[in-house]
Amino acid sequence: MHQSAFIYHRPPASLLYAQIWPRNRPFCGASAELRELHMGRCLHAVVIKFGFGFNNVIISALIDMYGRNNEPGDSLKLFDEMLEPDFICWTSVISALTRSDLYAEALQLFYFMHRHNGFSPDGYTFGSVLTALGNLGRLKQGKELHAKAITSGFCKDNIFVESSLVDMYAKCGLVDESRSVFDQMEEKNSVSWCALLGGYCQKGAFETVVRLFRKMEVDLYSFGTVLRACAGLSVVKLGKEVHCQYLKRGGWNDVVVESALVYLYAKCGSVDFAYRIFKKMPIRNSITWNSMISGFAQNGRGEEAVRIFNEMIQEGVKPNYISFIGVLFACSHNGLVDEGRKYFISMSMDYGIKAGIEHHSCMVDLLGRAGEIEEAEDLIKNSQFSNDSSLWAALLGACTTSTNTTVAERIAKKMMELRPDYHLSYVLLANVYRAVGRWNDAQKIWNRMQKKGVTKTPGRSWIENNSSSSVSFLVNSNIPGEMYNDEKTHSFN
Predict the structure, then answer these.
(1) Where are the PPR repeats (predicted)?
(2) pTM above 0.85, yes or no
(3) If you ran DSSP here, which 8-state letter would residue 482 be given?
(4) Upper half-sphere CA count for residue 394 (Cβ side, 13 Å)
(5) How far apart are CA 233 and CA 215, in angstroms?
(6) Sequence-ordered list of residues with C-beta below 8 angstroms from that of 267, at least 6 positions apart, any chain
(7) What is the pLDDT of residues 155-174, one digit of tens each?
(8) Nearest Cα to 336, choosing from 316, 313, 307?
(9) What is the rounded radius of gyration, in angstroms, for the C-alpha atoms of the chain?
């Protein structure tokens, strides 16, 4: 038993409750805050030994301790053993489940508490349940609980409830509502700031994230979000500045922030630097592994991406939907046909993951690059995405290197049937004709395209200059060689 537990062994039980009980809950709370699970278990043993196992206040503190240490099973077991749990115990177990990402279970307990036990939620209960609703994307119920919090008087000057509302609306995609709640808050903390930043980042408003980050009192928890925004903007220089700020403020060994750093550097092409951070991380989550796999894959280092994927499995980390996109992309861009086929089958057979449109797209690209056009065509026809024009476009793109114009025509006609106004159907078929010297047929396709009024989508590129600005350009596809600025400049100075 932990040494700190022995301080409770000397006094008789009756004297113990009278003299040292006021310190019981602080000790349990300290174990929770410090994430000292072993010490918390020792204190739990002391509680049972001296007969305090029926004290609701102590048990609620133990429930909270197990919840903060990601042991929801122990929290539930303690709660289930209580004869008459009071409101504090209900709130503690709901919070414990929410902290452990068991959002549906937390909601189930909340509704049972409210309907069958007659307890009315307080600010902490509202906050925990709003967090659960936000993570489940249940906007309607979130709005209902918001109204309940207003009528109960918990929405004014209650930073816990207000921050949870900012988070709930942000995660449900209503960033304007989230910002409205945020602006009405008289006091803002790191939770409310990070929730708002996360909402804008999820929406893709990366520039807004950067602007808000410069205004806020920076908290270590906010660095992960702003680094994702830098990755979204592909501005590695700004990302390095944020990285330096993180280190200067004493940040270290935070799996969320370091995973965001791996994603940033890998996405911006600094894959070796991303790998250095990856190797030094003591703890890696699925986001870390997926970022590294995709980073190698997108930078032309497919064999290394496959190696990282296999290492992930060897270390007991179960690959998910995104993991297989990364490894299949690596296979498709490095000619690893047999490996690609193996991973595509393993995804459903070994891990129960249903192949999505992205996985099929990678496989079509892989088989098309290898010249297996008809196998790729059969894959599309036998999938649930048989009428998805993007897959047929990828396959037709592969036909540009093939001399089998019969297959190319068949695929192009299928695309035109699915999307008559889809310009790639005409452009890629014309390219196929030109590749085999059928110039007249290619011209007919262009004439048909113009007659139907089908135009090519203008291209867009981003340039990062020395002043840390990103400039967007458009390429006019209808006028060869012409490029013009779209008069949109994004500065982060």
Answers:
(1) 86-121, 158-192, 285-319
(2) no
(3) -
(4) 23
(5) 19
(6) 231, 234, 291, 294, 295, 298
(7) 877 888 999 999 999 999 99
(8) 307
(9) 29
